[in-house]
Amino acid sequence: MKPFTAISDIEERIGKAIVNAAFKVHKELGPGLLEKVYEICMAHELSKAGFFVKRQVDIPIVYDNIKFDEGLRLDLLIEDLVVLETKAVELVNPVWKAQVISQLKLTKLNLGFLINFNVAYIKDGISRIRRN
Q: Based on the number of CB atoms within 10 Å of its own CB, is 103 exposed (0-12), middle (13-18) or buried (19 or more)?
């Protein structure tokens, strides 16, 4: 069995910043908007907090020694360390958590977040996910 990878101090700082930004964006905008709106606002808030943020990042997949460039797209990648998937849906599908786990595995990153902004209380929409 593979040992659990420890989360670094910078990953923890990014994680806290993601949660803080989610609370700020949700308080300001509330639920009911398109996912892309929350993605843009989260990228803006995280950039204001001093983090380098990439949006809609294509990640190639290698399978059977073949590289597929159109394999995977991340909503947000913060400091090339933490993945953030944004949703604005009535009900979170369990496959989306599995998607973040797969993204972490394929990118070899340790920490990801799935945030659904279509909730009354944002604390109910935040999922912190670690690669194991």
A: buried
Token reading at 109: 């990153």
Q: What is the CATH number of the domain that holds 110?
A: 3.40.1350
Q: How many CB atoms lie within 10 A of CB 85?
A: 21
Q: What is the pLDDT of residue 1?
A: 47
- In whole angstroms, give the CA distance from residue 75 to residue 63: 22
Total domain count, the chain: 1
Task: Return the pLDDT at 66.
Answer: 86
The span from the CA of 110 to the CA of 121, in Å, is 26
Q: Is residue 86 part of a domain?
A: yes
39 domain residue, yes or no: yes
pTM score: 0.91
SS percent in the chain: helix, strand, coil, step 5? 40, 30, 30
Condensed to tens digits (0 to 9), the pLDDT of residues 45-62 reads 999 999 999 999 988 888
Q: Is 58 exposed, middle or buried (0-12, 13-18, 19+ CB in 10 A)?
A: exposed
